[in-house]
Amino acid sequence: MGRPGLNRRQLLAGLGGLTVAGSLGFAALGTGADALASGADTRVRYWNLFSGGDGANMIAMLDAFRKEHPDIAVKDSTLQWGNPFYTKLAMAAAGNRAPELGVMHLGRVAGFSPGRLLDPWDENLLATYGVRKEDYNQALWNRGVIDGKLYALPLDVHVQLCFYRKDVLKKADLLGDDGRMIEVGSTGEWFDVLKKAKKVQKKGLQTIGLWTNDQNFQWWFFVAFYTQLGGTWFDDDNTEVRFDADKATQVLEFLRQHVTDGYVIPGAPTGEQFINGAPFTWEGNWSVPVFSGAKLEYGATPLPPVFGKQATHAESHAFVLPHQAGRGGATNEGAHQLAAYVVQHALQWAAGGHIPAYTPTLSTAAYKELTPQNEYVSAMDHQANEPKVWFAGSTGVLAQDLGPMVVSSTMGSAKPASVAERMKKELGKLLASKNPMDGHTAAQGGAVA
Known about the structure:
The protein is of the alpha/beta class and 449 residues long.
């Protein structure tokens, strides 16, 4: 992109408010610790942020790759999730100590100084290993494109879902002939559903888990319903705020009503309440293994289209190529081959609840048999994403700044209309602020695909 590189000292200064303490250490939790001694022809170092069930699924896919490709030694390392991961990855790229392959949330790519801290993918090389643009939802693929180059190869789509207890909804006559929750198309219909479910639910439980005091979940829910209303954020050049305070107020009032009407117990553990019999909970698809492991009779659908248009909040894990001054040759080809392999063999990944980004997987008989994954796979086609600006993305500045505002409205410490105006004002400040990674505003960052 024609910009000078960053050295380690400049990057540390630029990171400013990001969490740096403790980020320099990481645990190599993968199964490739003996990669250097394996005798393989090529070594690929791979950094990720997957722990728990996701970590186990990723290791299983890596082990399968190792078995099929003994000539490539994969050294995988799992780092702490969130800003510590991004800080270390940025410092490694700036200091020319980056791994051959990494993972990022797709929403963070625009802010990671593509062309300086990230190297672009070779689409022809990916095609050689079986992955093409045509194999993807085009909107998802284009989210990884910056200035005409692909900087992120999506692995999945992970979405916010409406989980429901089939045993409770059956008592309330809220299941259709297909055994799934009846369709909802307005806020009135949704609150009617909650009212009916509340009448038959167990005493002492909330009707729906809404993560009312969690800034990330409240922000994700806001993004979904604001998108349903057709709300926009900025103009195409990222020079002017186009945030609609009236539409934002509608969303904030909708979220708040769950509390005022008594369907939510603020602070109650959402997952535990659902397992114990609460009719609904809104959670990320990563809760699928938890609820399935609890042997519940449940379903999961995208967040209800209460404002008429289907849209549910979505993020994606994506493979990236952290900048290396001498990137190329066998190690670079190995990184492309490994990423392409995992993308194409993501049925294991789908077991964790994520929707595979590689669309041929979605048409396989094995995927179609996965429940409740087969119920919410349509979310791929109506994603509600944060704007494509440097301060957006998972755990990004946008969520950190606006999330607490949404919480204040939902919890009742501030009025929805005043919060909407505060959100609009804050968006103006963020639009004028500079990315600590490269000193550019959103308008100057070349973040338009």
